[in-house]
Amino acid sequence: MILTWDAAPPNGSDITAYEVTWTAADGATGATTTGGQARTVAIGGLVRERPYRIGVLARTAGGVGVPAVVEAALPSRWITVHRGADTTYEDKCGPPDCAYPYIELFGFPPRTEIQITPVASAWGRFNVGAELTTNDQGYLRSRTRFPFSGVGQTLWVDVGDTQSNRFLWPEKGP
């Protein structure tokens, strides 16, 4: 899980660290500390569909603040999209704008055909999509479908009633 937050008010002293804690409904706990400039942290090892109480508090030379707390649970299935390998597709799509979306599906039924449909904020459903098959663990990765050159658009994929993250398409890859 990736957790993000806004900066805490310094209240007269620079923030030196953020402390992030989590507690599951069954009592399992965890914690991590980040630097004072951080606004995000990756929390690993959380169990899907298990509810967690997550707190973030700021530490200064003068002490600690009151934690901001949220209740959250990871979904049983999820989809991620980001920019993949550069490509050229006919004369419509070329470097540096054009690349394949890198798509990953997790937690879907094993060995099942899944309809993936790409969507862009300005173009809508710009491709009819494809039916691809998950592996024995319900995982699927697509790295060479749906060439896209919509710099500045938000890209996502629909899979039935599940949507991926929304990814802002950059002019070129990392």
UniProtKB/TrEMBL annotation:
It comes from the Bacteria. Pfam families: fn3. SUPFAM superfamilies: Fibronectin type III. This is Fibronectin type III domain-containing protein. The lineage of its organism: Bacteria, Bacillati, Actinomycetota, Actinomycetes, Micromonosporales. Keywords: Carbohydrate metabolism, Glycosidase, Hydrolase, Polysaccharide degradation. Residues 1-84 form the Fibronectin type-III domain. Gene3D superfamilies: Immunoglobulins.
